[in-house]
Design a protein that fits this description.
Largest sheet: 10 strands, mixed
Order of helices and strands: EHEHHEHEHEEEHEHEHEHEEHHH
Number of domains: 2
Bound molecules: 3-isopropylmalic acid, manganese (II) ion
CATH class of the largest domain: Alpha Beta
Strand order of the largest sheet: 2-1-3-12-11-4-5-10-8-9
Strand content: 15-25%
Oligomer: single chain
Number of helices: 12
Structural class: alpha/beta
């Protein structure tokens, strides 16, 4: 039997609740496709601080680098908002991304037909929306030195090298080949030298991909286009900070931040986490939408373990559950009944297994 080791880092807030459902779905997939998953559960973020006074404890580091893929819930805890940087949950996530060398963060956004009334945007704007944000993840302002604060003066540094730009741009061009063949590179080249290097480097690289169309877009314009004409976008390539902001904006198109998955890829094990955060107000109430985490498990199967059939089975089960009317509170319209986190997980697990029965007959 094929066996894969998956490091599971539930993290903080709603992380543990939604990741529990993603793991149930992976177990169902294992049953259906005769795959064995060896799960190792480890703390990260505030959970790491609680367990080992470290948002990325050494034991977690050791296991993730040996695993085939890493499934992460969310990090963040308002109680640590004023903690020193070394003890902040987000510091653990940034260190984890760096440790795994996952420089390309893929955030697909599509509008499920059954949910076109969930977005605040008018339904006609949402027709045909299917885009992929490719966000650079291990450089830029998040990591630049010098950084720090001295009383009433603070500094962060934005820096990128051409090789850092090239490797993430390649991921975007390759992805565009399997999609509609358009890369929109987002920068602020009218103001920033880093963006000028970004634009120059991406333009040069485009020569290797004559079958892909490249356009450039300033980040302010891109922010506007995401809500005025989102269907005109295919692959959106951008640096770390712009990508953080634009991917949350893009999530609005899908109807809820709770739906969106992401994959962070480098040369080692991939890191898979839903786009939503720890959502403190929802934590512990059993109401959070687990679909982002479950769709993230599908990306783990597809991009992390190269199991496209298993990934399709999960994506199909999510779509079928939504068509059948399953709605967590973030998706329920006035008058619609909503179900909790575990119930949504159960519906999707049942559909993964039901498809298996269909296949047998
Ligand atoms: C994200 C999150 C993180 C980021 C935070 C939690 C550090 O917002 O994954 O988008 O800014 O990258
Ligand atoms: Mn973010």
């Amino acid at each position: 039997m094929k066996t894969f080791s998956v490091a599971v880092l539930p993290g903080d807030g709603i992380g543990p609740e939604v990741i529990a459902q993603a793991v149930r779905v992976l177990e169902a997939v294992g049953e259906r496709f005769a795959i064995r998953f060896e799960f190792a559960e480890l703390p990260v973020g505030a959970a790491g601080v609680a367990a080992a006074n470290d948002p990325l404890p050494p034991a977690t580091r050791d296991v993730v680098i040996q695993s085939d893929a890493v499934l992460l819930g969310a990090v963040g805890d308002p109680r640590l908002d004023t903690a020193p940087r070394a003890l902040r949950p987000e510091t653990g996530l940034l260190a984890l991304r760096k440790l795994l060398g996952v420089f390309a963060n893929l955030r697909p956004v599509a509008v499920h037909p059954a949910l076109s009334n969930c977005s605040p945007l008018k339904a006609d704007r949402l027709q045909g929306v299917d885009l992929l944000v490719v966000r650079e993840l291990t450089g830029g302002l998040y990591y630049g030195e010098p950084r720090g604060r001295k009383e009433m003066r603070a500094i962060n540094t934005l820096t990128y090298t051409a090789p850092e730009i090239q490797r993430v741009a390649r991921v975007a061009f390759e992805a565009a080949r399997g999609r509609r063949g358009l890369v929109t590179s987002v920068d602020k080249a009218n103001v920033l030298e880093v963006s000028q290097l970004w634009r120059e480097t991406v333009t040069q690289l485009a020569g290797d991909y004559p079958d892909v169309r490249l356009e450039h877009c300033y980040v302010d314009t891109a922010a506007m286009r995401l809500v005025t004409d989102p269907a005109s976008l295919d692959v959106v390539l951008t640096e770390n900070m712009f990508g953080d902001i634009l991917s949350d904006e893009a999530a609005v198109l899908a109807g809820s931040l709770g739906l969106l998955p992401s994959a962070s890829l480098g040369s080692g094990p991939g890191l898979f986490e839903p786009v939503h955060g720890s959502a403190p107000p929802l934590a512990g109430r059993g109401v959070a939408n687990p679909i982002g985490a479950i769709a993230t498990a599908a990306m783990l199967l597809r991009q992390g373990l190269n199991l496209p059939d298993a990934a399709d089975a999960v994506d199909d089960a999510i779509a079928a559950a939504l068509y059948a009317g399953a709605r967590t509170q973030d998706l329920a319209r006035p008058g619609e009944v909503s179900i909790g986190t575990t119930e949504m997980g159960t519906r999707i697990v049942d559909l993964v297994l039901a498809e298996a029965l269909e296949g047998l007959s």
